[in-house]
Amino acid sequence: MSKTPTVISLFSGAGGLDIGLEQAGWTITAATDVASHAMETLRRSKQAGIPVAGRRSTYMSKTNLIEADVTDLSASDFRPPKTKPDWRPDLLVGGPPCQPWSSAGLQRGLNDPRGQLISHYLRLIGELHPTFVIFENVRGLLTARGETGTPGEVLKSIQDDLWSLGYASNVTTLNAADYGAAQRRVRVILVATNTHTLPSFPAPTHDREGKNQLPHWRSLGEALKALGAPDEADVVRPTGSRAAALRSLTPGTGLKTTGRVMANRPSGHWGYRQDAFLADLSLPSRTIRAAGTPDWVRIEGEQDLRRLTWRECAALQGFPEDWQFAGTKSQRFQQIGNAVQVDMAKAVGGEVLRALRLGEATQPPVTAAWSPVLLERVRYTIAEHNTNGHLRTPRPSEVKAS
To answer: Which phi and psi angles does 142 have, rounded to 5°?
Structure first.
């Protein structure tokens, strides 16, 4: 291990994963993304010299920021100056675009060009030979279908490809609310190594019911109270014909969709409209999405409903208050919603750093079997598809839109 544990970050976006890793003790040596507004966010934030919580450094102070398409990059683009051709990072991280697998999208998977970026992630692992790998993505990847149409096939194939490169891996799903975030955000986390013992996944620091002597999940209401009043310029209030319907909602409910009804859903494809849900302030927020239509909130003492602002969404994702987001308001929402939640990233990064510091394993690492929880999720997906799959044939308008 080098004196300073080094990270190469792919598909970095606005830097949520990188922020958490630097808080855990890592140093990001290179970060890349193709989105110019996201890279401008990283450049501005680096230039701002924002102190890393708990460390005597500023975020990305030693990071080479590379704005480029990952398909055009190779190992030599990431090596720090004056290092040997066989230099290898301690950790390579990233989450290829999640839209191909997300339940909020069309779920086109490998048929979406963005879904094929996984191959370049794997290619760079083969070129750079990092000691550890962290791969993050939406929960939908857990049950994504590959060539044979079997749920879970895509993720299994990623693990097989890693094994062919010499990497053992372990995969799970983690909920950001279990690590102190005021947001219920479940993500697939895969960790791999070719020389060390596979690290454990981090134990929760919070519990939904406050069990096991852990504090309760942090609520959205607590988080908003700590932030104080939002900038009025960022506030969106209901207008038009739907305003009265939105104002009549009970917290934790929303306006239902008018789509095709499925046997195990409240109504339509999603149950509630994604842009018309009133948050329950006593719980962590729902997952922050990459859209400018976050959930509505009703705050005691405020005159009317309003949407969560982009700054509040950034705070729920764990971004530092003075992170320098660039781009339009829509692009800021997109960067925030696509990011890895910082508290969860820090927890995972801490476990991987501990495994790195233990040194190389005496026996080659072995890929871990999927847990019963993951296998049950796959079984549920198969059963749900048998019930509702015939309703998912795209309508002509949906095909055209895709």
So the answer is: -60, -35
